Amino acid sequence: MYTNIAGISAGGPGYREIVIRPRPGGAVTTASATFTSVYGPVSTRWRLRSGRFTLTCAVPPNTTAEVWIPASSPDAVTHTHGTYLRQEDDCAVYRVGSGTHRFTT
Fold first, then answer.
1. pTM of the predicted model, to two decimals?
2. Residue 69, helix vs strand vs coil
């Protein structure tokens, strides 16, 4: 549930690096979760409504996250404080540091 629906998984030992990759689909149009790592809580909240996807995620101090946003290109994504890395598997992939981040397509 954390990995597939909420999209929270470890990208490195102890969640110092985090992968946030929610996978909307089927009848699931909204989800939220919090996982308490050794660095602090990692949380995601996403919603898919009328073809618009919104993700808010919180990354704990002294960690980084790779955030995967379902989007055909990075031009389709509005975000706060993210660095675009690449396009892969129909997702725009971003790197973020600690704090709260919001992405919309």
1. 0.93
2. strand
Phi, psi for 21 (deg, rounded to 5): -145, 80
Among 41, 35, 46, 5, which Cα is nearest to 23's? 5
Give the SS3 label for residue 11: coil
Look up residue 22 and give its two tokens.
């929610």
Cα separation, 22 vs 96, in Å, equals 16
Q: Given the DSSP bridges, would you call strands 30-37 and 64-70 parallel, antiparallel or unpaired? A: unpaired
Identity of residue 88: E
Chain CA centroid to CA 80, Å: 12
pLDDT tens-digit profile, the chain (105 residues): 778 788 999 998 889 999 999 988 888 899 999 999 999 999 999 999 998 999 999 999 999 999 999 999 999 999 978 899 999 999 999 999 999 999 999
